Amino acid sequence: MQEKIQGLRGRKDGPRAWGCARRNPQWAVFWFYDSIRRDKGAMAMTNILVLGGTGMLRGVVLRLLAEPSDVFVLARNPEGLRALTELAQDDARHLTTIALDYHDRDRLGRWVAHVQLMHGPIDQVVAWVGGNREAVLSVVNEEIYQYRRSPWDLYDIRGSRAYVDKPPLPLLHANCRYHRIILGFHVDDGRSRWLTHEEISGGIYQAMRKGSDDTVVIGTVEPWELRPREE
User: Fold this and answer.
1) Which tens digits make up the pLDDT trace of 17-27?
2) Which of 124-153 are b and which e, b meaning 16 or more Cβ less than 10 Å from the residue's Cβ?
């Protein structure tokens, strides 16, 4: 960290950057990594945070690791995280996991800050969150904002009912590009079923790589009356 702060002296905006960095190491991380992204563009590794990546999102994590990207997975199930690491095999060198209840907002905030101090600002977040979703996303949004002002992407995974309920968008900083991904169902010859984990992970990954739509439906949500009874 100290080497990164010292490196600011050589930049063309040196005196101002050096003074700010000494007073606020958090700002130094933001400035240092943001300048690297500007200088190197697509050459920089992508930092991706996944909330709840041991169940249906496991396939998304494995696809992201194969790019490769640096992926940070937070989940409540230690056994699921160990299984994910084993499945990643050689790509596990780009995987960091932590067993944590994301509803513990203090611990969540500290961990997201720690990831960025050690690895640089987070570029993308994939969130499959139950319970108080708004509070969890608010913590992540605030911590990322402390380390970057350039745009980043939030992929908020929602169940099929979000299509009809249309919940309000979470309150986010202007540099967050919000994407709502709705998990629908599959209809064939008048019969319906829920999507498989493979279909879900493949659809989410494709939506992330496309990156432009505000709302994406995986599968279908129409006709609504054919929606399977239990999700």
Assistant:
1) 444 444 555 55
2) bbbbbbeeebeebbbbbbebbbbbbeeebb
